[in-house]
Amino acid sequence: MKGRLLNAYAICPAYAYFKFHFPEQATPSMEMGKELDVREVVEKYVNTRCNRLYSVRLRGKLGSGVADAVILCSNSLEVIEVKLSDGFRRPQLVQAAFYCLLAEDTFNKTCTRLWLCSPNRCVKKKFTASLRQSVIGMVESLANDLKSLPKARKNSYCSYCKYSSMCPWAKD
Prior knowledge:
The chain has helices at 3-11, 13-21, 28-35, 38-45, 90-107, 129-145, and strands spanning 51-60, 63-72, 76-82, 110-117, 122-126. It has a 5-stranded mixed beta sheet, sandwiched between helices. The protein has a domain at 30-145: Trna Endonuclease, Chain: A, domain 1, CATH 3.40.1350. It is α+β, with helices and mostly antiparallel strands. Helix 1 (3-11) crosses helix 2, helix 1 runs antiparallel to helix 5 and helix 5 crosses helix 6 (129-145). 40% of the residues lie in helices and 23% in strands. The longest helix is centred in the middle third of the chain and has 18 residues, at 90-107. The protein contains 6 helices and 5 strands.
């Protein structure tokens, strides 16, 4: 499982299904995100004495992904996910939490926090047992829902989803 796919699943299960089976080309916002200076954002807002790693490839029992940054302390770690805008929502939180799980497997340390950052600010969140269980459950559900088109509800994302013409749930 990949982090971006879990992000899509948090937006809409059908979106993740279509994204998996019909991969999309990079959008303009994806391209702009590649230009973002993650190191500059992290160093501006995240104060730590621990080691910072950037563009960290992660692999674990649940899948793989690339975290924008990981803070490695002696007994713990923190994951940092940087986005273009600071309207942090559930999909971004889920993606960062998934990277916490992968980082735990990769570095054999406990993830205690995650950071959601933008060029304007960073928000620090505890990596709670509840969030951990929620993300593990989502990964399991996503794995099943990729086999056949899952049921979904029409939501605000449908109006600009690239797959809405193929999706029976996006219809009025």
